[in-house]
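Tip: read the tokens left to right.
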């Protein structure tokens, strides 16, 4: 293993570090996406999805050359149409307007886990399936989120909400297990091998490593 210093770029994520916390963006990734789509004009939009928009497999005209659409998204790939492409362009123009938006993880954020869950009942007009959405914050920091169509058709908005809550609860249990499993710096026994420490900290680590005095 090699120490490469402070993390600044990893898998499309750009990380900026300060005494206040971490700031994570995907500006370069988004810029590359915009270049691939050929969006060279300055037109932007304020929201990623048009209000009350509902896409269907048969809406609009078939695309004469769907290759670009298929490189950008993963829905309606078999027969993409003009309405689908217009929706993609709107998302890209929103990305262009929010290119440097990112997530901030405060160094002073309290370790309080909060969850939010929602469901869009029968949001897909074609198969009548609902969409589950949830997000988790550790203090003020967003650490987990999801938006996915539900597997089965819900017969009511209440059922759709309960399905969303079930998925949220599953993620909550996993996150609680993960956070509980993280080791506090006070329990880091290898500390003594890497740095000079105060007398009390040194004594505690020596005791925890079971280094005992055994006179002859």
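Filled-in amino acids:
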């Amino acid at each position: 293993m090699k120490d490469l210093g402070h993390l600044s770029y990893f898998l499309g994520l750009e990380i900026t570090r300060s005494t206040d916390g971490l700031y994570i963006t995907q500006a370069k990734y988004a810029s590359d996406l915009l270049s691939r789509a050929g969006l060279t004009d300055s037109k932007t939009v304020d929201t990623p999805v048009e209000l009350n928009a509902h896409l269907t497999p048969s809406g609009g005209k078939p695309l004469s050359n769907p290759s670009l659409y298929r490189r950008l998204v993963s829905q309606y790939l078999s027969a993409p149409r003009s309405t689908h492409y217009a929706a993609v362009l709107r998302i890209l123009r929103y990305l262009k307007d929010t290119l440097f938006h990112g997530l901030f993880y405060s160094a002073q954020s309290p370790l309080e886990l909060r969850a939010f869950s929602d469901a869009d009942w029968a949001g897909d007009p074609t198969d009548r399936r609902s969409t589950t959405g949830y997000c988790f914050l550790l203090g003020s920091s967003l650490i987990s989120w999801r938006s996915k169509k539900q597997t089965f058709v819900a017969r009511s908005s209440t059922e759709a909400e309960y399905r969303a809550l079930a998925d949220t609860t599953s993620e909550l249990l996993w996150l609680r297990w993960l956070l509980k499993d993280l080791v506090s710096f006070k329990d880091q026994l290898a500390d003594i091998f890497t740095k000079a420490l105060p007398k009390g900290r040194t004594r505690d680590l020596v005791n925890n490593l079971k280094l005992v005095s055994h006179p002859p």
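The longest helix spans residues 157-181. The chain has three domains: 1-108, 111-181, 183-216.
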